[in-house]
Amino acid sequence: MDNYMEATNQYVVFKLEEEYYGIDINFVETIERVVEITRLPNAPHYIKGVINLRGEVIPVIDLRTRFNIEDKAISEESRIIILTIEEMTIGLLVDSSSEVLTIEKEEIDNTNSLINYSEDEYIKGIGKVNERMIIILDPMKILYYHNQEG
Known about the structure:
The chain is mainly beta and about 150 residues long. It has helices at about 1-10, 65, 140-150; strands at about 10-15, 20-25, 30-35, 45-55, 55-60, 80-85, 90-95, 95-100, 110, 125-130, 130-135. The longest helix is centred in the C-terminal third of the chain and has 11 residues, at about 140-150.
């Protein structure tokens, strides 16, 4: 069964600015509308704060800030993607969440050739689906990099 899960290659696709990003669906718990975010004093600049989701306090990482993309006001389209990584739950604040796509391994290019790309350490590859490019993120790296700084 696990092999089947891996073989599906399904990604939750979301937008930051005009770019599409994807995260392996196996990490995604839910996608939520933005609720009140409580700021934390002395938190790293990219930690937007925490939310209370059904009684659980969850830290929220602002991916725009994380990737040095100009700040933008939260809108009706904004979403928080709730991920569980190694028993830790975190939220990722994104501009909008669009769909779940299946991207086969053959359709994903390795990013070793990208040099000095600001988000490089978080990127697993670039998926190509119907003329669209989708940047595949590695949620483990977002989490571990986040832990090292925080």
